[in-house]
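Here is one chain, start to finish.
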Amino acid sequence: MIKNQPIIIGVAGGTGSGKTTVTRSICEHFKNTSVLMMEQDFYYKDQSHMPFEERLNTNYDHPLAFDNELLVEHLNQLKNWESIDKPVYNYEMHTRSDETITVDPKEVIILEGILVLEDERLRNMMDIKVFVDTDADIRIIRRLMRDINERGRSIESVINQYINVVRPMHLQFVEPAKRYADVIIPEGGQNHVAIDLLTTKIESIINKN
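Its structure:
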């Protein structure tokens, strides 16, 4: 018997929008089904050929920061029920690590990241496209709390980065990709009604398979 291809769900949205919370809620709902979470952040480009000083200037919110060619290749392998060696990014060295993580295919693949709807090749592979839409003031507060508490950064550095890089990239690339979404979830992980509707839709696709 030929196995049906896995279902691919894209979950996009701005920094601090609640993408990860939505994704985890879906994974929790389908804990008795084989679900794989793929983060676009693992697919930042290798920068080992660049001097360290140049790597420090990398704009991680720009589409060109991602190795989407490799991501598309890996998603195709997973769709064909083949395992992949997922890259690992070293944020201290600002380049890809020598380490990889072996990932086995699952029935449901959730691809999460700020720009997963921006790339047409990725969109064309998705069965459901989701955009988590949260107000900018909530997103900046969440990012501030995360970067200060988890990454040891100063308030000033987080705000400067947000104003000079994160916000312009959001307006130029992240927000416009919302028009490609099949489902828009306002207020992220707190929107239990939207998440319930989404999981019901996923269930219907799984049952058809």
